[in-house]
Amino acid sequence: MEISKCVVLVFLLSGCTVSNHNLNNGPNALGGGFSDNKLQKGLYSIVAKTNFAPWSDHKAAHKIFNRRATQLCGTAGFTAIELVEREFEHIPRDLPPKYIISQVNGYVICKSSNLTIKEAEKLIQASYAVSL
Length: 132
Hints:
Blueprint: H1 2-14, E1 33-40, E2 43-49, H2 58-73, E3 78-89, E4 100-110, H3 117-131
Antiparallel strand pairs: 1-2, 2-4, 3-4
């Protein structure tokens, strides 16, 4: 009985850890990770998701988002715009605990690109028109 409790505890705690899984390479069984899309040199859209947990954790989703933005933009830094927080159940169920994935979507402008926020917003709007 004690072993099964330990296994359940390890499973729950592993769902709380921050994922560095690139979702462009396929889904993560725990739900977390990031995906990104290059709109133009120095302008990226990023989706960052936490692994599932029994609570919302947008702080962890922001951490994943910022880590990926730093990887894409390097040491020059970035400006994040149009950030949206969401959450959803990884496995919908009626009984507790819920398996919640927290998500942050947004765009980053790399400082090295010299794009202004206005220019980036126009490029983002243009990308919406292309995707429709």
